[in-house]
């Protein structure tokens, strides 16, 4: 499989209505054209980007375009590897929208859903005030509030869920010391061999742990990611 089979090129879709930036410049939505075996499809920017021109972009604006191009190409290559005989560009947008998600967001979304189920089983009167919407409503905050409001809540949740929480907390602990820019760890990064090798090295060093501890954590996190993409 050669990378040259697939190309990704950003462009401004001037067939759609532009935005005005307060001046005279009109900003058009950013799209990407993916080409494979002389066939192509067009995908709108996951970040809903608008620009007046793609010429002369610098710093974060250029980096965000490059980041999307990289993830789109990796998405197509990953799908090609999984389905070499039947691969087409059909449905690549839906796959891309999942593969570009931040890894920690996928883990957190899973834990929130399980937390809701656990709370419902307690028949707690506090369920209506435990709001699960909003950017600042993190799993960690909801879990902490649940333990404060519900007596012996930690003893009422399944062991398997506790292990998932522990795995998530370990993973996010490793991210705290990382300097973030435009790029971040995506769902697709999870399937890169170098990613897991680097994660293993950092995990063992950070927690002074054995490989077996890391393998258990990765097994849990991998099952969460696999669940997220199994219908793609």
Q: Could you state the order of secondary-structure elements as H and E?
A: EEEEEHHHHHHHH
Radius of gyration over C-alpha positions, nearest whole angstrom: 21 Å
Q: How many strands, which pairing sense, and closed or not: the largest β-sheet?
A: 5 strands, antiparallel
Distance between the termini: 21 Å
Principal-axis shape equals globular
How many discrete structural domains? 2
Tally of helical segments: 8
Q: Compute the average pLDDT.
A: 91
Number of strands: 5
Provide the helix percentage.
40-55%
The share of residues in extended strands comes to: 5-15%
Low-confidence stretches: none
Structural class by sheet pairing and helices? alpha+beta
What this model shows, in words?
- With 232 residues, the protein is an alpha+beta fold.
- It has 2 domains: 3-87, no CATH class; 103-229, no CATH class.
- It is built from 8 helices and 5 strands; from the N terminus they run E-E-E-E-E-H-H-H-H-H-H-H-H.
- Strand 3 (26-36) and strand 4 form a beta hairpin.
- Helix 3 runs antiparallel to helix 6 and helix 7 (193-207) crosses helix 8.
- The longest helix is centred in the first third of the chain and has 24 residues, at 59-82.
- The radius of gyration is 21 Å and the shape is globular.
- The mean pLDDT is 91.
Task: Give a quick precis of the structure.
This protein has 232 residues and is α+β, with helices and mostly antiparallel strands.
């Amino acid at each position: 499989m050669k990378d040259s089979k697939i190309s990704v090129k950003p462009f401004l879709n001037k067939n759609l209505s532009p935005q005005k930036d307060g001046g005279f410049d009109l900003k058009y939505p950013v799209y990407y054209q993916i080409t494979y075996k002389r066939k192509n499809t067009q995908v709108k920017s996951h970040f809903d980007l608008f620009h007046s021109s793609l010429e002369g972009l610098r710093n974060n604006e250029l980096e965000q375009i490059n980041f999307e191009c990289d993830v789109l190409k990796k998405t197509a290559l990953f799908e090609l590897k999984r389905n070499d005989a039947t691969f087409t560009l059909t449905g690549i947008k839906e796959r891309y929208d999942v593969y570009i998600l931040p890894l920690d967001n996928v883990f957190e979304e899973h834990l929130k859903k399980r937390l809701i189920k656990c709370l419902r089983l307690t028949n707690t009167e506090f369920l209506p005030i435990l709001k699960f919407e909003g950017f600042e409503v993190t799993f960690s905050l909801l879990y902490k509030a649940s333990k404060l409001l519900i007596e012996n809540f930690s003893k009422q949740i399944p062991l398997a869920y506790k292990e998932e929480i522990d795995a998530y907390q370990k993973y996010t602990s490793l991210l705290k010391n990382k300097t973030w820019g435009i790029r971040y760890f995506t769902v697709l990064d999870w399937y890169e061999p170098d990613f897991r090798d680097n994660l293993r090295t950092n995990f063992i060093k950070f927690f002074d742990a054995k490989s077996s501890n890391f393998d258990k954590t990765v097994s849990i996190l991998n099952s969460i990611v696999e669940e997220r993409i199994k219908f793609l």
